[in-house]
Structures are given as structure tokens and as C-alpha cells.
């Protein structure tokens, strides 16, 4: 006869294979469902991806599959099944630094929602303080109820929000491994019992936080009584406390899905930069060109129309032989335009470096000849950002002529190289938490329209002529700026149209393909883009998609 404990152990041992079997069945069913949803959304694109997969063109196939599969309403459910453990370690109640949950119930007193929140907190060995209750009617009253001698961390949250199993254990492990005053994690939304809209967040991005509070309600803070007293009289005390803590030490991102929320803070729509255009320093606009006078004329008209006090225009011609183009260049007013000649094979890096050497402006604007401007403030907007001491290269939002996004920042690691964030999304779509509409730090930006201080450009040696004559020179340039503490910045308030590659053509010939392969190899060798994760992306977002798709 066996003991009760032994019997329970035997049942558990038998149940594990059964649970594993059920998980496999659920995975297979969800996988089939996600693929069916993807096929139904776009049969043609799905069949194209399938064809590439059969032909063993796996990278191209994954790039097509990733955004299709992520559109399925069951994609995140499949991700959760594969990535979240069925059992989690629970936090210990006797840690040296306790975590105090401050649940603000003043805006939402639903009993069922509050009970669900408290149940999950108590399962994590936390006893909540309810701000708005009889015992703690206001935030100031909570200060007296917290044992500050234990150096606690605070967890501000709202009614209805829930912690994932093991969340506090994960936070406590992070506390032991860092000296910051704020730790945040990823979150999703709850619709009934269903979890949707996962936000796999970037590592700390102070510029994005100006416009999108992705911390409050999904973070813990190491605050003092005076920190809490400073915000006690505010209706938005939690967000103000978090913002204050974020200024005091760099927040640490815990790349785990730890929060299930009922709502998120609203976006703060960006307003134009406040610097007046007449206060901006001279800028040298560098435009490489070859033939295609129609593109060049449109580009120059846009530069001339920009509201900017002092603009030097340098056109650097790479062996144009079209009579109309040559005639147009000869007719340009030399008082407003400098035309330089650069003969030989097209080397975008060498062309821009030469022009930068001769430029007189404090700022440089690298501008493709196939850029069409849509407003007069784009240059002043980008210049204002480029003058910030912590900013390196500033990139604009570029649209294809049909209105879809061509560039909204560059993500390292996409396709094991680098990709344009949010490509093919329409500017008026929500996309990935409206990130394409918000100024933010990025790892790199495109040189098709880039503004940088000339001093910073020269400090890193300009563009790399040897390894990146055509492709990836902007990525390499931005990464070198980042290393010096000059972070790249994406600025959507400067939006232009990019007629991509129409003047030079695509690299479909064997020579162009071989050159591109060499540049890709150099990017991987120098920057390990086939290994690293972009800090402003996320390991749980697909490396095969430029559209921030959940990695399946």
C-alpha cells in the first residue's frame, strides 16, 4: 500500500505525458488555424510564400509568411502556448526588498474586476493597498501604511489588471541584478478571458516615451516617501511617479510577458518641434545624381521651397550623359547651387564623403535625387532634432508614391541584415501601436533623407567607401554614431515621398548582385547582424518581417 503523497506523485508523473500530448494537439490545431486565417486574408500572397518555401527559398518565404500569420486572431494564442510555461515559480514572501502593489480603484470599482486583480496579487504573495478604499482613500494615506525601512519597490496598477504567474519572481530576480529605479515588462490586453494585442516593447527609448507611456501599469519603481508625496495630489499620480523615476535612472526592460491589462495609457500626439526656423544654423544639402532630370528638378524644387534660413545646395553628378540633364545642370544659378563632378563607378559613400568635405554648413542633409517633398517644414524639423547633443543621424518618414511607408526607421537583424521598420504600412493605419507615427530613437535610419551635424559626420569618418559603396552604408554609419553616444532618431513629422531606386535601377545584374552579396557579408562581419537583436525591436518579434509580427 502506497502513501497519499506517493500516489499524488504517481498521478503527476502520469499526467505530464498526457498534458504534453494535449499541448501538442492544441499546437497542431492552432497552427493549422493560423495558416488557414492567413490564407483567407490573402490567398495570393500565401500561395506565393508557399511556393518559395517549396523551392527552399526560406528567408524570402519567412518574410512573406510572418506578416500574414501575425494577422490571424489566433497567432498570439499560439505564441503563448509555445512560449509560456505551464508551471511557474512563485515569489517568496520573505525577500529583503518587498514589492507593494498600489491598486488605484477610484476610476473603476467593479467588484469582479477588483477581485480578479487581488486574487492574482495574492497568488504572487502580494497584499495590495487599494487607493480609493476606506482604509486608503488617497495616495497620501498609502505612504503611512508602507514599511519604508524595508526599502520597498512599488507597483502601481489599475483595477482589472492581472499579473502573470511568476511575475513577481521575475521582477525580484531583476531587482537583484540591477541598480536602476524602474523595471518594466511586456504586456497584453484582456478581453474577457481572451488575451490580445501583445506589446513586445523596445528597450528603454526615452524619445518614444515622450509620446507613448509604455511603462505605467507594467512596471515596478524603487521610490521613496518623498517621491510618492510629490505626486500624491495628482489625479494621474501613477504616470507622474513613473515619469519621475524614469528621469532618475535608466529603466531596465524585462523581456517577459508579465502583465495582462484592461487598458493602456493614451498616446500623446507629437507636436512640431518648438525651435524657430530662423534660429537654425546653415545646412548643406548634398544630392547625388545621374541623368533623370525629371527627378532632380522635383527634388530641387522641394529644397528651394523649404522654410529654412540658410541652405547650401551641393549637386554631385556621377557621369550624367543625358543632354537634357547636362543642360539643366549648366543652367542652375551658381549662387544657389554648386555642381561637383564625380566620375567612375557609382559609390554612394565616396560621392557623399567628397561633397561633405567641401560643404560649408554646420549641418549636412544627405538627400537622394528621387525624393519629393510634401511640406515646407521638413528640413527645419529634422535640423532641430539633429542639433540635440545626444542625437546622431535623423531620418525622415519616407512614403512610396502610393502612400505606403517605405522607411520609418531601420531595424537591425531583420533578414539577418537590416530592414525598414513598418514597410508597406499605410501612414493612417494603426500598425504596431502607432509606432510609425511617433518620434523615437532607432538603431539606424536611411541616408535617402538624413540630417546630421557635420562635426559628428567627420568624427566617425563619414560613410564607409570600401565595405559599403552602395548598400548598408547608412546602417554602418548610424551604428558608428551610436557607439559614440550619438543615437539615431526617426522623425515622422518630416514626411517625404521616395521614388526608391528609380534613378539608379535595381541590382538584378550579376555584377550588382555580387556587390550586394559582398556588402551584406561585410555588414554581418562588422556588426553581427545575423546574431544580435535590435534593442528597439524584440526577440519575440519576427526577424523575417519589417512589420513587427509576432515570431511564430
Automatic annotation (TrEMBL):
EC supergroup of this enzyme: transferase
Domain of life where this protein originates: Bacteria
Entry-linked SUPFAM superfamilies: Nucleotide-diphospho-sugar transferases (SSF53448)
Catalytic activity, EC: 2.4.-.-
Molecular function in Gene Ontology: glycosyltransferase activity
Glycosyltransferase 2-like domain span: 284-403
Keywords noted in UniProt: Glycosyltransferase, Transferase
Keyword Transferase applies: yes
InterPro entries reported in the protein's UniProt record: Glyco_trans_2-like, Nucleotide-diphossugar_trans
Protein name: Glycosyltransferase
Species, as recorded: Sphingobium olei
Lineage, highest ranks first: Bacteria, Pseudomonadati, Pseudomonadota, Alphaproteobacteria, Sphingomonadales
Amino acid at each position: 500500500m502506497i502513501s497519499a503523497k506517493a500516489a499524488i506523485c504517481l498521478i503527476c508523473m502520469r499526467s505530464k505525458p498526457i498534458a504534453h500530448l494535449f499541448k501538442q494537439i492544441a499546437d497542431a490545431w492552432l497552427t493549422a488555424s493560423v495558416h488557414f486565417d492567413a490564407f483567407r486574408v490573402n490567398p495570393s500572397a500565401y500561395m506565393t510564400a508557399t511556393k518559395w518555401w517549396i523551392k527552399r527559398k526560406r528567408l524570402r518565404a519567412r518574410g512573406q509568411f510572418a506578416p500574414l500569420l501575425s494577422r490571424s486572431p489566433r497567432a498570439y494564442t499560439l505564441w503563448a502556448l509555445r512560449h509560456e510555461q505551464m508551471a511557474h515559480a512563485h515569489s517568496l514572501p520573505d525577500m529583503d526588498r518587498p514589492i507593494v502593489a498600489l491598486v488605484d480603484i477610484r476610476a473603476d470599482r467593479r467588484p469582479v474586476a477588483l477581485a480578479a486583480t487581488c486574487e492574482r496579487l495574492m497568488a504572487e504573495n502580494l497584499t495590495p493597498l487599494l487607493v480609493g478604499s476606506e482604509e486608503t482613500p488617497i495616495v497620501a494615506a498609502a505612504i503611512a501604511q508602507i514599511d519604508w525601512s524595508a526599502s520597498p519597490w512599488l507597483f502601481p496598477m489599475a483595477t482589472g489588471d492581472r499579473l502573470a504567474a511568476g511575475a513577481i519572481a521575475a521582477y525580484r530576480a531583476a531587482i537583484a541584478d540591477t541598480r536602476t529605479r524602474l523595471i518594466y515588462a511586456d504586456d497584453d490586453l484582456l478581453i474577457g478571458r481572451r488575451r490580445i494585442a501583445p506589446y513586445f516593447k523596445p528597450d528603454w527609448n526615452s524619445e518614444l516615451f515622450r509620446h507613448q507611456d509604455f511603462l505605467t501599469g507594467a512596471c515596478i519603481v524603487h521610490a521613496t516617501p518623498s517621491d510618492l508625496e510629490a505626486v500624491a495630489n495628482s489625479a494621474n499620480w501613477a504616470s507622474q511617479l513613473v515619469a519621475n523615476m524614469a528621469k532618475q535612472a535608466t529603466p531596465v526592460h524585462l523581456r517577459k510577458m508579465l502583465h495582462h491589462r484592461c487598458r493602456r495609457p493614451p498616446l500623446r500626439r507629437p507636436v512640431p518641434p518648438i525651435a524657430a526656423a530662423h534660429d537654425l544654423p546653415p545646412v548643406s544639402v548634398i544630392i547625388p545624381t545621374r541623368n533623370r532630370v525629371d527627378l532632380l528638378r522635383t527634388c530641387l524644387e522641394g529644397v528651394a521651397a523649404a522654410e529654412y534660413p540658410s541652405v547650401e545646395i551641393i549637386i554631385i553628378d556621377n557621369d550624367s550623359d543625358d543632354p537634357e540633364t547636362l543642360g539643366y545642370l549648366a543652367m542652375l544659378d551658381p549662387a544657389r547651387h554648386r555642381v561637383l563632378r564625380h566620375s567612375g563607378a557609382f559609390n554612394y559613400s565616396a560621392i557623399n564623403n567628397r561633397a561633405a568635405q567641401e560643404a560649408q554648413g554646420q549641418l549636412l542633409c544627405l538627400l537622394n535625387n528621387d525624393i519629393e517633398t510634401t511640406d515646407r517644414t521638413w528640413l527645419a524639423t529634422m535640423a532641430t532634432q539633429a542639433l540635440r547633443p545626444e542625437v546622431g543621424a535623423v531620418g525622415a518618414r519616407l512614403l512610396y508614391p502610393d502612400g505606403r511607408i517605405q522607411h520609418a526607421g531601420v531595424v537591425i537583424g531583420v533578414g539577418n541584415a537590416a530592414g525598414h521598420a513598418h514597410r508597406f504600412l499605410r501612414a493612417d493605419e494603426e500598425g504596431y501601436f502607432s509606432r510609425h507615427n511617433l518620434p523615437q530613437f532607432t538603431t539606424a535610419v536611411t541616408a535617402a533623407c538624413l540630417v546630421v551635424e557635420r562635426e559628428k559626420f567627420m568624427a566617425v569618418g563619414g560613410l564607409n567607401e570600401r565595405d559599403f559603396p552602395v548598400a548598408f552604408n547608412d546602417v554602418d554609419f548610424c551604428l558608428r554614431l551610436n557607439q559614440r553616444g550619438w543615437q539615431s532618431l526617426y522623425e515622422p513629422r518630416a514626411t517625404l515621398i521616395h521614388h526608391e531606386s528609380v534613378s539608379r535601377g535595381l541590382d538584378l545584374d550579376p555584377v550588382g548582385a555580387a556587390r550586394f552579396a559582398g556588402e551584406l557579408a561585410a555588414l554581418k562581419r562588422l556588426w553581427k547582424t545575423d546574431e544580435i537583436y535590435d534593442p528597439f525591436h524584440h526577440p519575440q518579434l519576427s526577424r523575417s518581417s519589417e512589420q513587427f509580427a509576432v515570431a511564430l
